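Worked problem 6 (solution included).
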Amino acid sequence: MKRPMKSLLAAAASTSLFAAFAVAGVTVASAQDDSLSQGGPSTTCVTTNPDGSPRAPHPGDCAQFGKAGQGRSDAKAKNVILLIGDGMGQQEITLARNYLHGAGGRFEGIDNFVATGAYTHHSVNKDGSINYVTDSAASATGWSTGTKTYNGAIGVDIEGKPVENLMEMAKKAGMRTGNVTTSEIQDATPAAAATHSVNRKCYGPDESQNGEGCKGEAFDPQFREHGGLGSISEQIVDFRADVTLGGGAKSFGQKVKESGPGRNPFVDNTMQWEAGKTVLENAKEAGFTIVRTAKELDAVKEANQDAPVLGLFNNGNMTTRFADLRPSEHGSQEAPHECTTQDTGEEPELKDMAAKAIELLDDPSSDKGFYLQVESASIDKRNHSADLCGVIGETDRLDETVKAALDFAKQDGNTLVLLSADHAHSAQILYDATDSVSATSRVKTADGVGMTVGWGTLPMDTILNDPKMSTQHTGSQLRIAAYGPGAENVIGQTDQTDTFFTMANALKLGDWEPAKANNKNQVDVAKARPAVNARDNCYLVTQDSSKAGNCAQFGAEGEGLDDSKAKNVVFMIADGTGDSEITSARDYLVGASGRLPGVDNMAFTGSATTYPLEAKTGLPGLVTDSAASATAWNAGVKTYNGAIGVDLAGNPVPLLSELARKKGMKVGNVTTAEIEDATPAAFATHALNRKCYGPEADKNKSSCQGEDMSSQYRENGGLGSISEQLVDFRADVTLGGGSKAFDQVVQKGGTWGGQKWEEGKTVLENAKDQGYQVVTTGDELDAVTSANTDKPVLGLFSEGNFPRHNEQSIPELDGAVAPAVDCVANPERPSTIPELADLTTKSLDLLKNDNGFLLQVEGASVDKAGHDADFCGQVGEFDEFDKAVQAVREWVKKTGEPTLIITTADHAHTSQITAPGKNTSGRTIKVHGQEGSDIVINYATAPSNDEKVALGGQTHTGTQMRVSAEGPGAANVLGQLDQTDIAFVAANALGLDLVGAPETIDLTPQWDKDARFGKTSAGTSSWMHWGLGLAGLAILVAIGYVAYRSTKRDSGVIADEPHALAES
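Solution. The predicted structure is:
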């Protein structure tokens, strides 16, 4: 599509206006800052040499922002506390919150960070190829050393060479150090903090007692008797952290085989080993204070290099909080279980271990601080066992510990606290009480509703019958959060290795120069308003109507991080795109270390819950559909699945688009779906059911037929079908598919909102009669030069949804072990259908005016491809969406329009990134990744693997979603939100009153009434009049000055259904 040239006059007028505001003392963002990084470390994260041999990445090579870091903050910290929820992806955070605090509740620790972001965590195989599913060893090495390495590696690169870790750097700088876990202290995460081993299973000096991963001649060089650094247990003693607490006593009982000094390659140590004695006996003789119970730990009064503390509270991993709850084939049909607390005997709680470590490490009188790593290890371990209650209990433990760390940091004022995970895992929140091909468990949440969780990364028979089974990690990017000096440097899209430099730079460690704080994307996180417990207001079972903001975590006022105002707001919605879908698309399109040009370069990133409410009870449903979700961010109101712009009682609720129209703003609605589909419908219409497409009930889906739905139709006194309402609303620009429903015949005529409807004519014929400019091809859209309420643009480019960009790919039952395939372009996609980026840019050009605009753009078919288990469809549609995001960012930069851009999704979906060579409960497909390595995608939420069911019957999942933004007010998406909060991020930036809207927006049938809203045009507006009244003479001076400068310069210049089988 050709993009029309902007007139110099219009550009000068726009520049003059904003210059005038600046002279008048009005804060107006004239342009959005570019991202701090655009392409990712594609030139530095090199893992093979030109001859194809492996190359070991160096520290920082694969970090998105290199050694220097983002430079959002250059504040320095005295102390750093790193908290790790092993295996804690977005699914695990959400399901644990649902059970412990309710869907609208909040964790006291995990949810109470303001600085939040997302990070990738892939590893690099020994041959230099990329592994898209990491393990804890490679991950922990990533944040501990800033280096990518192979799965199983502890503190070494892909050549097996030790790399200095942060704990060693801190100790060399005179800082105190601590290492706390609920696992064996030799396990991957705590081991990588302080040791170096070619394999994570090299626990003790007796090779015969170690795991299979550390046996045989290949591992001899690890052990002391062969000149190596020694086992992990020996190295823990060698390193001599001031505080080391966890399980793993059994390996400390192995006997040392080689006498002599300690061999840590980076720090001086005084350790002298005596062969024939156990590791623990050697530690005692070296001055370690050994504690074995909570009581003994509590009695410790000091920890230092003379008397370091070694706490070993279990022979293996420490006891979990809750007893096991294992899944079954039909676990979703069982009565909801409640988790049972276990007796942990004399073991200390994680929060108490962490608190004691902080107490022992903190020395206010010293100018030297401490570095402490704390891990809740068995979120991962219980996930491997498909133990839902175990996962929940260990997340609860972590939350308590996070709260304790935050309490210390807030009092101390000089401590950086970070929270993240090493990798995502297998669990998925599914539609409750619904069977799938995955093994499932069902529990009763704090809200009193059932929650079904599935494990589908192994064959069901293996999960149910193999006692040694271990479900897979998954490759989805992870949430990272921080508090304290330098916390802002986790915001946005980073990699796990960036975290090392965030910590090292805050502590002034390292021989490189950290980035200086820049003026881009700054935010004062201390300004954030406290969140509320939305459960207090959200679940009002007996109410007759819903109030906007009742379910928002920050209420109608919003988070308050950025009170600046936007002229325009653009919602960018990637339907069905959770963190897993974003990650797999990135892996395929630009590589695991690459950077998506649009989505990844947004300035601010947070997470948002997506739960709907049940119409009958008012209580949460835990997996949403697009209708309830889109209503949430367009109206600030929670509603039931299938509802379009109505509350639980079916009453219409005011929408942001209606408020924008009332204010005199232009509005636009763009999608690659049928324009009547849930997301675009919820932007501008009100319907009891999302399938009320057209005025002929018998031609709509069955969900919009029958007595219960009759009140929707105009002949029965209702607001009418979605297509009729879209015409009524008269958005300046409406573009998408769905022409078929516009061919339905209108059943009742008359004057509605100032426009004449003629019974017997189609919706489309009526639209044309009412002045619409109807276009059906890209060329016809190109020819449009203006759009307003007198002559709105209606683009209908396909009968149904837009055809996908790629041919459909078919996963198989053995796809993970089958040869990899490539995605290929869909030859049946007509050239007459414009690209989403072109539709978006054209809409921006048509909507640009003095009063501002509100635009929603949806990439719809990531979701529809997800339902079909069509990975190539997903990546093709996401690629189109990301290009549209990039186009909006470029338009804003070019025009200087103060525009808030918000990108998010309505819900997560089914796809998971799993390991090659491992079949699952569902269907898998293996594709060639960008770097030449293979990516495997799993689909395991359909009720059957039969092709007729599985290719169309994959379902949404209930995890919280990534939300990102840039522009005026963008920082208000940081932290932990609900989807309804997003409505207020936009409303507050535009000065729209959603709470008071019911008093000002007429949502009754509009027969024989005048138009609800005024006309839009490109002429001088209230925005200009407001500026003139405020600035007075300053306006004239500014305009004259800009005109003078301009003269001088020129003279020289889907089927997205809420349940199981999706309707076609």
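Discussion: The two ends are 30 Å apart (CA to CA).
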